[in-house]
Amino acid sequence: MRAHDTRQRAGRAAESVTLTDARTAAAPLQTAAATAPSLSAASAVGPAAAAAASAASASASRSDLNAALVKALVEQFQRESLPWIQDLVEPLLAGPPQPLTGTSPPEQLADPDSRFATVSGLRLHYKLRQPGEWADASAPERVGWRWAELQREAAEGAPTLLLLHGLNGSTFSWRLLMDDLAAYVSPLTGGCRVVAYDRPPYGLSQRPLGWPREQDNPYGLEGAARLTVGLLDEVTRGSRAGAGPATAAAGGGAEAAGGRGGGAAPAAAAAAGGGGGSGQAANPSRAVLVGHSAGAAVAVETALRYPDRVSGLVLVAPAIATDSRGFLARADLGQLLRFAWTRSLLSADGPGLNYVRRQVLRRVSEVEAGRLGVYSDEREVPQEVIDGYLRPLRAHDWDYGTLQAYRSFQVGGSPPPLERLRMPVLVVAGRQDGAVPLEAVQRVEAALRRRSGPGCVTESVVLDPCGHVPMDERPLETLQAIVDFVNRHCL
């Protein structure tokens, strides 16, 4: 009995255990079955939610991108477009130009060694170094009474170097070279004659407002070439006569240098046959022309028009075009529109003068801050250099002359026919020149090297480091290059 009861209790216990184990085993399945609908819903909703979140993120990214793009465009417009738009609009809104204050007659700004001469009716400021002037101060005493005679003989037989500065330059541009060039070029004659002059409208030379014939326009290449040859005649005539430094009244009493109202003077002088630069003197003198930047273009123009007056060329950082298409053919639509607008603005006296003043005075503020933009290293530009470049802007009517020069700029047409030059040419460049890049200078050199025939010597010197003004930044190396070249090829 007890055994039977024991077996029954064991069976019920086993059944209980079996049911419990079955329930335990089935619990995960029941849980899975119970949760299956919710998991299926989640799996169905998940992609849509992710897509919505992704779309919202993309929309935000596009919004941020658009905002950044608009901001960049606005900043670019303010930096690149707005300044020149203001340059072209504000002169129209500024009203009639008011007279400048604080300017002086050029004679009051002249240096002790300044000279003035009337050439083709224009009053030109220049400086001159004669052979023997570089000698020590005791030379006249040691030589005695024949000193003046020896100087005159040396001047008669000595060659001439004529120096032509670039845009916004003056005789100041050549201050570090003139004495040494006079001393070391042509040692057989005891040195050479060196002339540097202010090309209108720069420096202390007269700034005419009109001329009856276009070839007399001193701001164009043809008129500048005529002035160059005319000054060469004037200086060599004076040297043969033993003339001393010219005073403010020298040159025939022309109207005050830099003064207005001298428009008819060039034609009148040319008609009278005086100093017209025609090269018709009995024994026309020759010169080596040393041109810097835009002055190099004038030197080339002079050599092409008056080849018998030029014995050699030195082109320093030459701003000379070599592309036959010209600017107008290469410019895009925006550049053409800006150019046309600027030309139209300059053609009107009042707005044109306002435009010129705005451009120049902005440049003045940069120069005053030592940012000349012509040196390879401008961390410490001497104050005397800043003052020297700015002094011509204290002369009467610098703004009227600059307006005439702007109106005379030629941007179309063919480049000068360099292959027609039949004299030795030296090209000097600065590797870090930001105004006339080395590649542009090398194109000029390549065109010159394609010449052939007697006298067609082409040499080049690249100074490193050096910017746009080798005669100012690397004067010793520039001097050596010029002296060596002229003494070997041009005498």
UniProtKB/TrEMBL annotation:
GO MF entries: catalytic activity
Gene3D superfamilies from the UniProt entry: alpha/beta hydrolase (3.40.50.1820)
AB hydrolase-1 domain segment(s): 161-479
Highest taxon in the source lineage: Eukaryota
Pfam family, one: Abhydrolase_6
TM region positions: none
PANTHER family linked to this entry: AB HYDROLASE-1 DOMAIN-CONTAINING PROTEIN, HYDROLASE
Name the record gives this protein: AB hydrolase-1 domain-containing protein
